[in-house]
Amino acid sequence: MQALLILFVALVVASGLGIAFLFLTKNKKVQNGLFYFLVILGMFIAFINATSFPSNYIVQAIVAWGFGFLSIVALIVKMKKLKNENIAKYIVSASLILGLLQLLF
Amino acid sequence: MIKKYKLSKLSLSLLGHLIMSFVIGAFTFGFLNTTAYALAEKAVTKGYSELNVVLEPKVVLMIEEICFIGAAVVFIVIFLYLVGQKLIYILEINEAIQKIEKGDFTYRVEVVGENELTEVACSLNNLAQMLENYIANEEQLKSERMELIQSLSHDIRTPLTAIISYTEFIKDKKYESEEKLEGYTSIIQSKAYQIKELTQMLFDYNKEAVAKVEGETLDGKVLVEQLLQEYQDILEEEDFQVEIDLKELVDFETSLNPQDMVRIFDNLVSNIIKYATPTQAIVFKVSLLDHTLSLVQMNKTDAGGKKEVESYGIGVKNIKQLAKKYKGTVELLGGEGVYQIEIKLSI
Predict the structure, then answer these.
(1) What is the pTM of this model?
(2) What would you report as the CA-atom Rg of chain A, rounded to the nearest whole angstrom?
(3) CB-CB neighbors (< 8 A) of B20 in chain A
(4) Residue pair A35/A89 in contact by the 8 Å Cβ criterion
(5) Smallest CA–CA separation between A34 and chain B, in Å?
(6) Between chains, do A47 and B30 touch, taking CB under 8 Å as contact?
(7) What ipTM, to 2 d.p.?
(8) What is the mean pLDDT of the segment spanning A69-85?
(9) pLDDT value at position B311?
């Protein structure tokens, strides 16, 4: 139980700091590194979320996987090199925040 | 000695794409696998299947195989998509090379990323910029050369006309005395030398850039007086009255090129002969103030304001170019029926 609490706190802290620095830092290299880290973190949270549900909670599990796929969408949007570079950041942030909310509540 | 092996940025980037595609593939496998099991269990609890399919090894294997194939497809698609972005960039660079090769030096590749392809794009843009500058420079030199040819061709006409006129006088024996004849021949000779010097400029472009006579100084006042005297004679022979005002001209030493001064006066006199009203006096006023030689020439133009003479404005343009060589200025100040030009030269 204690290990789970540490894991949850670590996930929240890592996500919070990651999102904050993703928008605050001006260094492109750091931004890119953080972005890819957050995409993987989003998928990891979705995986923990989805596998933590009992097997008959199909809808909730699919929703959790959906939040993970949102991170993949963010990656694809980033690769598309849209004029507004922030769109990919918003999507990956949404994926993380929604995943964490589902995990914690 | 161990050789240090350094991975290229492009390779690292491709490795990153591979890892990212693998993570996404694994994630998809997790999604497909857990969802498939959950659905299978649901089917059993709902009574759609008699067998407990979740425990059947064959079914388990089949589900896992299908999930693996699905995840592999996702992995391949994502990897190809990520690598495809690099290929698109290579194609963009290729397109830029082709456009530059065809002569479109304004085309630039968007600089994206921080790998070897980015360096290629940067180098290509720099190369295109260099070529663009080179071509622009060439064009400018060409146009300067053309202007010089145009200007010298124009300036050659005046002494050439004088030579033709004086040789016709001699041929038709229209001189009253031997002294006049000698005068005409010396004018012809000086005009021929002037033409020689002007044509020399065409062969030696750099000479045109040398404004002042290096290491040589002349008595500026004498030079101006001689030129005015010479052109006064020419104008009087064309039935013009000339008034010269040298009250504000003091003695000065100058390194002005006499040939340039002759060209300025040639152009002024050529314009006077073409456009000025012969009944009104032509005024020349020369003054010197703060190392600036100021030459003002004024005349009246005919009632209509223009004679029926073709003009391209090359004369004034040439004077402006010559004045520019001496950090000077040329201003046209005339009004209705009056033509006034002020030339200022730094001595």
Answers:
(1) 0.58
(2) 14
(3) 36, 39-40, 75
(4) yes
(5) 13
(6) yes
(7) 0.88
(8) 84
(9) 60
